[in-house]
Amino acid sequence: MGEPLALEHLLVHGRPAGYPVAHREGQVLDFAALRARVAGWRAAFAAHGGTRHALFLEDTFEFAAALLGAWHAGVCIYLPADARPATLDALRAQVEGFAGRAPAGVTAIAPLPDADGAFRALAPELAALVVYTSGSSGEPTAIPKRLSQLSREVVTLGALFDAEAGDVPVLATVSHQHIYGLLFRVLWPLASGRPFDAHALPYPEDVVAALRPGPALLVASPAHLKRLPPSLDWASARGHLRGLFSSGGPLGPEALQACRDLLGRAPVEVYGSSETGGVAWRRRDTDDAASWRVMPGVQVRTGADPGPGADDVLAVRSPHLDLPEGAWFTTEDRARPVPGGFELLGRRDRLLKLEEKRVSLSAMERALVDSGLVREARVLPLADGHRVTLAVVAVPDAAGWRLQEAGGRRSLNQALREKLAPHFESSALPRRFRYLEAMPVNPQGKSTEAALAALFDPRRPSFRVMERAPDRVLLSLEAQEGSPYFEGHFPGTPILPGVVQVDWALLLGREHFALPPDFLRLETLKFQQVIPPGTHLTLELTWAAESGRLGFKLTSDAGAHASGRIVLGGGVG
Question: Which positions fall inside the ApeI dehydratase-like domain (predicted)?
Fold first, then answer.
């Protein structure tokens, strides 16, 4: 590990030309390569003009160079969480250009060759970044960040964790397009002189393979750590794990124990948000109930919000926040102060007025988990004609799955409604349910309300994961009788249209693999048998990243129904 450098002076003071900055597929990318690439990006931003540009690149080394190049050109970077067309289109009115991925019809900025490599120190007050909240409870909110905020937080991370982390490279399962990944995967390693891997590790198999060659830190999230298959050869990898970090929410008991058993250590859990930056941390090696320890320079208190039921709501004052002098930021979390920190008590109640009565969605979620039938539950309002009804997305535990297998989905629905009935008015009980192997999460590891609501779209097939691997997934799904796709195709003898079968393959493929955004063509498409309403199907999806081909096969007890390959392109970074 090199001498720590402030972000403002990183390219002024610099490091030796051969100093390793990143690893990419066995290749070492050194400081000379970073400096040259930053210069090229700086020249490109300057030539394009404007002070607000969006940046989406999957390669972390290229992302770091583009980000630094933008800052040295006086450009504020807007970080979209993903490169979906709708996400990029929404940024058109806010930015003056796009680097990396760009909307259709827009030419992306690219680095210029042979650019001048002299640099000046960056101004701490630079408007450096706009990040977005995860949108867990609605539309994502833009959060501006000054360079001084980011720089102070990087210094805090170094003071807390540099000594223990040592001189080892950084691996990550999380995206640098989110503030947690940006700080832990890019900015802290750059400032501390610790090399990082240019590619993320989306699957547990990738983590095992990446840890085998030698010591490393792993930056992960609860969404990844609660999906560690015990069947993998963790013994060959965990001896090289020198540090483990997790952020995005508290780690559940099962995931915590899996980390201890499979990875040989509990993670350093970091508490914070896009708005607050890092607030506190803890490491639960043996004590499952260990409290959160406040980071240096951060202050917390409870009971500052005058709203109803806000006596235990946590408020934060921090150098990582850009607020007026003395101002506090009120979070959505409840907490109990303890010496040196606090204990989290859960999220602030989400209240909804339904049938003229107030209903606590948070209390309903707690009651569902307390039923002993589900491990996780989210309750959300859905518009049903002219009225609003409640819907539940849940991850059943073993007892819940057994009940569904024995009596069907309706039996589990009814059992959960009966568990809720003593605590809520009958008019407020949920009417719609979806059961999943795991909650859908975005690149930040959060389950957004939009993603949960999409599960109730009648055009989307409900499914269960039967088998999963990095390049293959096997799903069980049903062509439900109520699907609108059967309407008019054909009267009296409805069958599922072939175009819908291909659409389902692509839709579910995008949920399980990191696919390129652009559809190019279909290959070897075959339809062997029609699919009538109520057919229980097995869908096998295979992803060949090197050729950009998503293969699919739809079968049932009646035999093969459809198969083919969907060719995709355009890149994801």
Answer: 469-565
Q: In terms of Cα–Cα distance, which of 267, 286, 279, 285 is closest to 341?
A: 279
Strands of 81-124 (E only): list them: 97-100
Helices marked H in 110-237 — which ranges? 147-165, 179-181, 188-192, 204-211, 222-225
What are the distances in angstroms from CA 197 to CA 21, 64, 84? 9, 12, 24
- Each residue of 335-363: pLDDT tens digit? 999 998 999 988 887 888 786 678 989 89
Residue with tokens 């001048």: 116
Lowest-confidence segment of 8-12, 130-134, 427-431 by average pLDDT: 130-134
Please determine, for residue 267, whether its predicted confidence score (pLDDT) is greater than 90: yes
Distances (CA, A) of 397 to 254, 256, 368, 404, 418: 12, 17, 12, 11, 17
Alpha carbon distances (Å) from 439 to 175, 338, 431, 445, 451? 18, 32, 19, 10, 10
Whole-number Å distance between alpha carbons of 553 and 564? 7
C-beta of residue 415 within 8 angstroms of C-beta of residue 373 = yes
Q: In this structure, what are the phi and psi dihedrals at residue 158, rounded to the nearest 5 degrees? A: -65, -45
CA pair distance 65, 117, nearest whole angstrom: 13
**In terms of Cα–Cα distance, which of 54, 53, 105, 110 is closest to 82?**
54
Can you give the pLDDT at residue 137?
60
Sorted by sequence, the CB contacts under 8 Å of residue 402 that are 6+ apart come out as: none
Based on C-alpha coordinates, what's the Rg of the chain? 25
Rounded Cα gap, residues 213 and 169, in angstroms: 11
Side chain identity at residue 222, one-letter code: P
- Give residue 202's identity as a one-letter amino acid code: P
User: CB count, 10 Å around CB of 86?
Assistant: 8
List 566's β-bridge partners, or say none.
522, 550
Please calculate the CA angle 66-70-71 and round it to the nearest 5 degrees. Answer: 120
Q: Determine the residue type at 39.
A: A
Phi, psi angle pair for 370, to nearest 5°: -70, -10
